[in-house]
Design a protein that fits this description.
Layout lengths: L20 H20 L1 E2 H6 L5 H19 L11 E3 L7 E7 L9 E3 L3 E3 L2 E3 L2 H13 L3 E7 L12 E2 L7 H16 L6 H22 L3 H33 L4 H24 L8 H4 L5 H11 L2 H10 L4 H16 L1
Parallel strand pairs: 2-8
Antiparallel strand pairs: 1-2, 3-6, 3-7, 4-5
Helix pairs in contact: 3-5, 5-6, 6-7, 6-10, 7-8, 7-10, 11-12
């Protein structure tokens, strides 16, 4: 499941002319955070050869090497030297993203950066800094959501390392994450987070399907299909409530009434999730998502990462599942969206 495996696109420090202490401080932590990872990383071959490396870690690192070859040869993704080094983190996530929306809107706040353009999130290497910034936004009246992120892409500007935050995932989850991040290096549209994340999601899903089929692992493939079914049902549920909330926010009701009805709808969303979960035999990767104080910012992340998935999935089918043709068609679609 993988909306959480969303990318934090690294911001290069080519902005010395920017003014403002807060701005410079933010870029400074971004650059320092990534360079720190690079300094701590070592070649995968070092860990595989070392007698001190746990057996399970060696297995997972070898699997990543196989996935890199598959991504390049079968998915036509630009692998280069990405994910050829490993870093053991001292924390669960590598970065924390801050999302924000107005109290009565699902339109996410955007932040604009050099090279990466404008995105619907702001990332921090230290959770404390992310929550400190989030508190400032809350004080300004925003709905705010802070999410831990296991991986991100530097769009090919640096060598992205394998991280302990994701290395122990299942075959399908690991493949999904790597293919998703590598997709950003193939096609990334400045100022269009929705397209970028939806494109990477479709490529990753198709890649996982092909990987598991090649591995002749029918059990893992069936589990993957079940995960995909649950993901679609989760998305459909959330989007149905986004529409209800959007109708409420566009109404002429006074703010106090909107606030009450908003809380009622979110409570109903949680109840509907519990009902949906029963059809999954009570098993779900989404419990953590619903156990939080859900607000517009959290709801907006589902739109951000999945809005164009149906359209791009159809585009892949229209091109007979030929990835080269699909990539070309996706570039054309991205250009149309930018006109």
């Amino acid at each position: 499941m993988n909306y959480r495996n969303t990318s934090w696109l690294f911001i290069l420090l080519l902005v010395l002319g920017l003014s403002g202490c807060e701005t410079l401080s933010y870029y400074g932590q971004a650059v320092d955070g990534h360079l720190r990872l690079l300094r701590q990383s070592k070649e995968v071959s070092h860990y595989i050869a070392s007698v001190d490396t746990p057996t399970q870690l060696k297995i997972q690192l070898k699997k990543v090497m196989q996935l890199r070859v598959f991504a390049e040869e079968q998915l036509l993704l630009p692998v280069n030297k990405q994910y050829s080094r490993y870093v053991s983190l001292d924390r669960k996530y590598v970065v924390w993203n801050v999302f924000a929306t107005p109290e009565f809107s699902l339109q996410p706040k955007t932040w604009c950066y050099p090279i990466a353009g404008c995105t619907n999130y702001r990332g921090y290497y230290a959770e404390q800094n992310a929550r400190k910034y989030a508190a400032k936004l809350v004080a300004q009246g925003y709905d705010v959501y802070v999410a831990g992120i296991a991986a991100y892409s530097t769009l090919g500007w640096f060598r992205d390392p394998i991280l302990s935050s994701f290395i122990q995932r299942s075959d399908a989850e690991l493949a999904n994450l790597l293919f998703h991040e590598l997709s950003h290096q193939l096609l990334y549209v400045k100022d269009d987070t929705v397209f970028n994340e939806s494109f990477a999601t479709v490529v990753a899903q198709e890649g996982v399907k092909r990987w598991l089929q090649q591995q002749n692992n029918p059990t893992a493939y069936q589990d993957f299909l079940e995960d995909q079914r649950q993901q679609r049902e989760f998305i459909d549920l959330v989007i149905s409530y986004q529409k209800k909330l959007a109708t409420l926010y566009a109404s002429s009701a006074i703010d106090s009434d909107k606030r009450i009805r908003k809380a009622t709808l979110i409570a109903q969303l949680k109840q509907d999730y519990l009902a949906l979960k029963t059809s999954w035999d009570g098993q779900s990767d989404y419990d953590h998502w619903f156990h939080q104080e859900i607000n517009n910012a959290q709801l907006s992340t589902v739109s951000t990462y999945f809005d164009l998935v149906p359209e791009l999935t159809a585009l892949l089918s229209e091109n007979d599942d030929d990835l080269a043709r699909f990539y070309a068609a996706s570039r054309a679609l991205a250009e149309q969206r930018g006109e």
